[in-house]
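Sample 3 of the quickstart, ligand GBH:
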Amino acid sequence: MYRNSIVVLCAVLTVTSCTEDLTFPPGFLWGAATAAYQVEGAWNASDKGESVWDRFCHEHPEKIADLTNGDVACDSYHLWKRDIEMAVELGLHFYRLSISWPRLLPSGFSNHISEDGKNYYNNLIDGLLEKGIEPFVTLYHWDLPQSLQDLGGWANPLVADWFVDYARVAYTLFGDRVKWWITINEPLIICDVVYNSGLLAPSIISPEVGNHLCTKNVVMAHAKAYRLYDEEFRPKYHGKVSVANHHIWFDPLSPADAELAELARENCVGKYSHPIYSKTGGWPPALEKALGDYHSKLGYTRPILQPFTQQEIEYVRGTYDFYALNQYTSRLIRPAREGETFGPWPFADAIQLNAKTQADKSWPTTLSFWFFVHPEGIRRQLVWLKQQYGDIEFVITENGLSTQAGLDDHDRIDYYKKYLRQILLAIKEDGVNVTGYTAWTLMDNFEWMDGLSNKFGLYEVDFNNPLRTRTPRASAHFYRNLIKTNKLDLGFVQDEL
Ligand code: GBH
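Result:
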């Protein structure tokens, strides 16, 4: 109670007179992230295969806000030495990167490994390690080989086998040096956003069926890749494997909507986490029922969210070494009124739950239409996760702000201060075991449907310059200072740039 009062007091007092403990636990890990398609470029270098993002951007340039694509992006395929330099300048403990599946396996299958693809990732991994920076590697950050999409992609249950074959290649080639693995980045986006909105590659709109088929296949693919590591690679390499989920924190619009908000949390997070992290495994029971009802009302005669067998429940349960969360934003939720229409779940509404979502008027907007700033959301999310899945290790694998161009990004610094302060409260007041944090993103990059004009970077990238010059923003100085001191300086201001 006393400590809580101090915290409340600190919130209203100026920073200097505050006794709030703003240090992070000793050994706390600091990193920054990127993803292959967003930074690498070299989309057809050497024998690289085509990805769904290559195809989508080339066939539908109009679907990207500024008509750009990832053909060159930050050109990290050629400029990886500069990327490592930036990681060194910031003092990062780890750099979260992703491997492009079609760069490593041009056909999508493991029958042929690209020599150049292999060399690229070896160089990057070795270069980081030489500087004492841990490579934190995501196997899948949305760039599915187009060849596999042509065979049904994430809607085909065989994708789990294709994925585990790819994972085996990556563990075999890089597992001696990579100790942190993420199997899949944000199943929610891969399944729910893609099939509900068509806004992202491969842009297949199937909001009643495709998204739900994808859900189980993604969970199975993760579980297989985890089990493979656990059985064959962990004994010699001793690394850690998890999946990175996307989290939107849902609060009820009015207290009467509390149960609905809980169902929305299950639909957003529980759907991809309950099978893996809960004691019982399987789908969250209330959600499985709600989706079952939804589909029967639509006239389907069998469940569309594929049920697990008991054997599958046990196979999937426990397939984690830590909990990885990406979090940016929040929503309020309420039941839909008669006759209201719905935008796509999860950033607009929740037709599956007959519910409408909105942002609170007090939450600042950002350059991204889906993104409202709500720092308390990340603390509530962490507490909820601990309540649901127990006292496990949490690593924040993405968090950051989108802005316009410019080096003086005090709004980004402000965002980091506010979110990190809430994370500290989760650690110190709520006892959540958060052991690491990852800024999204190291440098401006191809922000999917928002193209190149929407900036998330600690470093600004000049996309008009063939050399793709990278320049630190004020926030890079803030982040470097944070890592150096392991302490949040709420008064930090960067004057000189
Ligand atoms: C993360 O996705 C990604 O992992 C990362 O690659 C991305 O650059 C970063 O965050 C910032 O967006 O969903 O209909 O609004 C976060 C989720 C996915 C939200 C793409 C916006 C655009 C289409 N983002 N999405 S929609």
